[in-house]
Amino acid sequence: MNTADNVVEMRSISKGFNGVSVLKDVSFDVRKGEVHALAGGNGAGKSTLMKILQGVYQADAGEIVIGGKPATINSIQDAKAAGIGMVFQEFSLVPSLTVAQNIFLAAEPLGMGGFIDDRASVRRAKEVFAEMEVDVDPQAEVSRLGTAYWQLTEIAKALSQNAQVLIMDEPTASLARHESEALFELIDRLKQRGISIIYISHRMDEVYRLADRITILRDGARLLTEPLTAVTPEQIVEGIVGKKIEGQLAYRERDHVAHEGAPLLEVRGLNAGPRVRDVSFSLRPGEILGLAGLMGSGRTELARALFGIDRRESGEILIRGEKVNLNSPQQAIDAGVALIPEDRRAQGLVLDHSVRDNLLLPLLGQITRGPFLDSMKGKDLSSSLIKKFAVKVAHPNRPVRLLSGGNQQKVVIAKWLGTDPDILILDEPTAGVDIGTKSEILDMIRELASAGKAVIVISSEYPELLAVSDRVLVLKDGSVIRDIPRSDIADEEYLQLAVQGV
Amino acid sequence: MSKANTIPARDTAAHRNFWTILKELDWRRYVIYIGFVVVFLFFAVLLRDQGFMSPQNLLNIFRQTATITVIAVGMTYVISCAEIDLSVGSVAGLSSVCTAMALSQWGLVPGILAGLAVGLVVGSINGALVSLLGIPSFLVTLGMLGIAVGVAQWITASAPQPILNDTFNMIFGSGDFGPVPGLVVWSAIFVAIGAVVLNRTKFGRQVLATGGNRNAAEFTGINTKRIKFQVLLISGMVASVAGMLYAGRLQSGRFQWGSGDELSAIAAVILGGTSLFGGFGSIMGTLFGALLIGLINNGLILAGLDSSQQQVVRGAIIILAVALARKK
């Protein structure tokens, strides 16, 4: 192998925090114009490795070589100067500034008298977007744009600083399918221009679609670096989780759906806003109903209407055969409905509060003694939930912010299951969690249904939907276009066509 | 056309037409100008017989608003950086007495320097506590509000400090530049510099970025601690100049000068459309916010309301204006 082709080489990097070793002798290299996937479970050391490359942390041992020369990267500025750009998982733009102002933030073109020349930045932003072959208005205020544009802006920002290597951390986590496809095409074009990309993703299909090579980290050490042609998806998954989880994503017949008696939930002709139009369906105890549809098809809005967030205009909702008015989340909770929202950080958790406080938030009614909260009861209840859902947490008093994405999601699910709901709605329950935690969450969903609860799962990932659903409801433009039993769905392709409305 | 255009182009330039522009117009940013015109016309009609429209009265509004305008320019930086400075009013008071005392002891230049030193010291302490120790600016400057006014009262034994230096009084507030009152010139200078620096310099952009998303600013290589320090320093310095304007106009230094100005200045800034959560600031908006408050004060006096009634009406108008400016 000719090392001259390597734009970045990280050699024998080690790093520890407070005496705990996080990276052990990890080597990682990126060639010019390559997409190099970086994979590993939560806590495997991916983000630490990338933060060292970005100058956020400094390695305890090892060296970084950029363009064949040893480089010292002690700050974000050093990394930028060395041509390392980052597209953040949690977008790091200033929402109140325009696209062009964000791209050239802290590197504004100056005009006469040393004043900022905003016209020049708009012009140069246009040039960058033209090179990227995407259509973004540089003068639009970022807060008014969708997440896909935020990402394009971040990429443009990195490119405008002459980045040679782009680090992308779960770039498709908040994108719709067609937006992801547009991003993939953009990545292909960047590759052709000789820009290298370090691609961190849990999604196998994306890794195979894009990457030339893959490096898998486990427990802070490098497990392998191989061309993707030389590894199978099974090997990758096994490498990430450290054990075979064969068949976790396969559908398992469960025999718990109660076909007798009244449905647990029945929806008749429900209208709520433009994206829930004349929706009717029913759900039996023990059943898992998958909601499929494109972005904007009304899946999330249907969940919001069922949870009493969005106002019902007409139609009926029946729970156990009785009409109910779900005009507020409180009424929905009282009626036995729980919603686990899509954006767990914004809607599901108080990030700075402890794991215990988060778990107990919907359960405060259960732990009172007289008018006061009983902290002993609270401790017992939260400990039992943490144990039951296998949340990996150093101490229940630690802020939930410190947990990994997968464990945060477990806290959200555990929090709502503490209320013992009969009907559970999960919106994108595994977004951004690694494959090991994902299969745990899917198992959790199956168990809940087997215990007699009715579950609605919203997911953009078809394999996941097919793995758990007993029935799939396909939505389009706010209406139900298909209601398909799982047994009639042959494969992912079939479901995809159904979603496209073919 | 590239394939990447499959991203819905809803928000991009090519698809903008008149109605979407109108719909996307951020009313929050213009409501102050509309409100100003409406209130102005209202008083112009209602108070036409009380001399509201006389040039003398209109100049008076400017003159009475000048110190608030100056303080509010500094406050715009602080608020758009997602901080607050409650100490500005008492810094003005302290600066007025220090200036007056130094002036009578050592003369003109030491007097001015003493006033500026007050802003420098208080602003630096505020800035250091907020940026280095991470104490919320609300608490730091609330404490400083008490400290500054207490020191001012203490060193003067609550007595007014007369200023007999005519040059000082002429420059700071009592004099006129031709037909234009000096105070108006002072506020025009502060507004002009404030607007240019906020909109057209790297520093201004970094203030907005720090206020809009501190993490993003930090990752972009902006030293957000330094920016936070600087905005509080600016606010202190500007408030000390405002204190000298009080001293010059009223020809004395007194610990009460400026008391309560922090609230008027914050009201002016928020009325002017600067986001209380940081990230967006408008100096022009602040100017009109301050003028609107001055306009209301003046109109209510001419209308014959007594000061207790004025306070009620002024409070109600401010709440109404901010409610209208609220984002949908």
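qc> The interface with chain B takes residues 76-77, 80, 86, 88, 91-97, 101-102, 105-106, 108, 110, 114-116, 132-137, 139-140, 144-146, 148-149, 178-179, 181-182, 185-186 of chain A (CB under 8 Å).
qc> done
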